Amino acid sequence: MATQLSEPKSLAPMVISWEPLPDDFRLEEKPVENINHPLLAGVLREILEIAGYILPTMLIASNFGLCVTLNNQPIIKAPDWVFVNRVNEVLRERKSYTPNLEGDIPGVVMEFVSNSEGEEYSSKQTYPPGKWFFYEQIIKIPIYIIFYPDGGLLEFYKLENGHYQLKLPDAQGRHWIDSMGLFLDTWQGTKESRTGYWLRWWDEAGNLLPWAVEKVEVERQRAEQERQEKERLIAYLQSQGIDPNNLPPIGSN
Asked: Alpha-carbon distance 76 to 67, whole Å?
């Protein structure tokens, strides 16, 4: 299946098709730009897993190749984080995904800006096109997020009338993602020896979805509260001359 995207007169029209990669195609192995990027991407997925949000039909990945064929030449861009609501089959042992051919187009892509910024905003239209142009004009991904981990700046772009428009957060400072049914915002704190800004999820009711360590801590506090309540009850019974280990059965006269 191919579509033709009109270009300015100075450039030739682009023919876009959604085809599988050739069997002999070798994906370029790029080093991770920043040691923090895998952490930022990993916790986004971790939170969703703990919340029981992820379904087998979803694709949630980091540094994962999105593939398109442009004028008979395959193009691959690997966003730092990508969400696809429905894929045709579970993708195992894969490093790439072709939208429309293998499932839905991604609902969200994210880029985490390192010291050498630029590619995230590139509207270069000639081969190979820049990431901004690739996401906006070729795949047409509804939401594009650019995050600056060092300063906590979150840029939330929504595709409207064929172009990305910067959107302001709501009164709570969060951005609603309709395709996920979740809010996204920044959060400042420490995890895995990294102190700084993170991206986190909130549910529709405005509840912060916890990390694994946070959920464990909540369970620990709950167990501790139950222990203290039990000790207070035992102390009270003993003060009344009642042996807490020899209570009559419930309902007995």
From this structure: 5
H-state helical runs in 51-126: none
Domain boundaries, the chain: 2-20+29-209, 210-243
Tokens of 248: 């009559």
- By the 8 A CB rule, do 106 and 83 touch? yes
pLDDT at residue 193 tops 70: yes
Which CATH code is given to the segment(s) 2-20+29-209?
Answer: 3.90.1570
* SS3 state of residue 35: coil
Where helices occur in the chain by DSSP H, the ranges are 36-50, 131-133, 212-239
What's the pTM value of the predicted model, to 2 decimals?
A: 0.80
- 30: which DSSP letter? P
Tokens of 7: 């270009």
Q: Where on the phi/psi map is residue 152: left (φ > 0), alpha (ψ -120 to 50), or beta?
A: left
Q: Residue 246 has what DSSP assignment?
A: S
Report the alpha-carbon distance of residue 251 to residue 229 in Å, rounded. 23
The two structure tokens encoding residue 112? 């985490």
SS3 call for 115: coil
Half-sphere exposure of 219 (CA within 13 A, CB side): 7
Question: Given a cut of 60, is residue 9 above it in pLDDT?
Answer: no
Which pLDDT score, from 0 to 100, does residue 221 have? 61
Asked if the model's pLDDT at residue 155 lies above 70, the reply is: yes
